[in-house]
Amino acid sequence: MNPPIQTTTETTAAAAAAAADSGAALRAARVPLAPDEPKTLVEMFERTRRLHGKPDLLNYKRDGAWRSISSEEFVERARRIALGLYALGLRRGDRVALLAENCPEWTLTDAGSLYAGVIDVPIYPTLAPQQVSYILNDSGARVLFIQNREKFDRVREAIADCSALEHVVFFDERGADDEVAAAQTLSAIEERGRTFGAEQPELSDELASGAAATDLATIIYTSGTTGEPKGVMLTHANLVTNLIDSSGHLAFSNTDIVLSVLPFSHVFERLAMYMYIYHGMSVFYAESMEKIGDNLREVRPTIMLCVPRLFEKIYARIKDKAAQGGKLRAGLLRWAVSVGKSYVQHTLNHQKVPPLLAFKYKLASRAIFSKWREGVGGRIRLFVSGGAALPDEIGYIFAGAGLPIVQGYGLTETSPVICAGTLEENRIGTVGRPIRNVEVRIAEDGEIEVRGPNIMRGYYNKPEATAAVFTPDGWFRTGDIGTLDSDGFLRITDRKKELFKTSGGKYIAPQPIEQRIKASRFVNQVVLIGDGRKFPAALIVPDWEQLRSYAQVKGLGLETPQEFCQHPRILDLFQRQVDSLTGDLAKYERVKRIALLEHEFTIEGGEMTPTLKIKRRVINEKYRDVIDRLYREAESSSG
Fold first, then answer.
1. Largest pairwise CA distance in the chain
2. Between 20 and 30 A from 506 (CA), which of 217, 235, 513, 595?
3. What is the average pLDDT across 44-52?
4. ω into residue 55 within 30 of 0, thus cis?
């Protein structure tokens, strides 16, 4: 028997809508949806077919060639999938899970589930098998849609005891065979839906019209950086209002072309896909993370959504190439970046650009930045960054190169967008203003609190956890610390749970300090430590190309990562870099010790979430010996 949908938090959500203001709040105008605007995602899909008639709505690469799915084909296939699910015995409110990389089948299955009134549960393909099993059991998913046999074999043993699971549906035709019990293919589901629809021609419209704004659309499990994953329940209304209210900030149009690179398992890209469809844009699925560069040059998008780590990697590759070209080329890059940052600081602050700076910028743009722009296709008008804090340095560098990045801010629980920047008012270092219909206030302890039509219904099967994230007057507690300036721009300073306290009783926010340290060209990744210790220290993953170039110039004769990480001259270099970038901090915030790590933090290694957020608890446990040694050496030297 499937577990019931948890609805005990509806009164909490209702309280949010009716609560009186308290504390400093920024109110966005409450604007109801226009009569012709969709109220459900199903209505949104139908609207796109009716208004846009896009011949190349979804585009994917197979056998070396790009292929297209029109808006008409998209809707018809989604309807067939809905009928196929119905023929399998699934009814409104049942759950299905999706475990696959981004592909058109993912989007079609998501849409088909929504047409059927079935709640879909996305699962990151990178999750450990036991986490996949937990999500399937907790959600009571009856069907698992999965990409291919390789993905299935990875989780097969772990999901064998998922009692609610009845069917496995493969996107890849070769996945289903006699070895997999109750296995089918998506094409077979579609064909079954086609047959069923011919027998009951009125059923497809009945299913589509049955969707209500208050129906659950999806249950998205948080990545669990601080404990057991929680299933976030989002309704059609949560997602539809958020996609419409976000649209005004980002000015999407049906002439835009998008390269989709982030996982649909994350609500950021999922909501973005709905926005693309709503606006009738042409969406191209990136083949893989490794082929993003090639795909950018082929597709030549105008818009792309990324997480900060991707921008950092792009800039790191640019620096590496310059370093390989010798001192002159590396110096030219540093000059151009410095000029670009200075130029854009003037323009973003609406200040007059001095003539000499304008001349230098023209040279830098022609000699250096034009190559950057061509490298991403030559047509990018907007990058959008979300999922984590974008370092100010990266924001200024890309804006200076003519590749502006606007930040958005939100959580899975907020569907997700709370705030977003705009090209017209791109205040680097902030996440913009709250979108329409969303209100933000700052609690006494600095925590950001939110209310609006985008707030989740609650956590599935977890009424206590749901109650804990709402204030008595109905505002959602984000868990983030931030400030609102006089113009209503929100600045995120850290995660509340990531603040740590030194043994001297001083609270430290690690993220701003980490961002400073990452400004060094020698630093790839950094994690601040020091909870319960006398002072903060830093674990640093070097930028190996920059470091090797430095060692070669200095004649150090180092070869292996281990040699680099232990050499006194290299350790001194990094300590000096850290000291110069953090020298103006309060004494108790200054990083007194550093340790260099040989290996990058990765999803596969367990140190990062699927959205590339650092798992501090995992890193503290994994590098416990390194951390303890750091502080022992500090005590010995001071003693």
1. 85
2. 595
3. 96
4. no
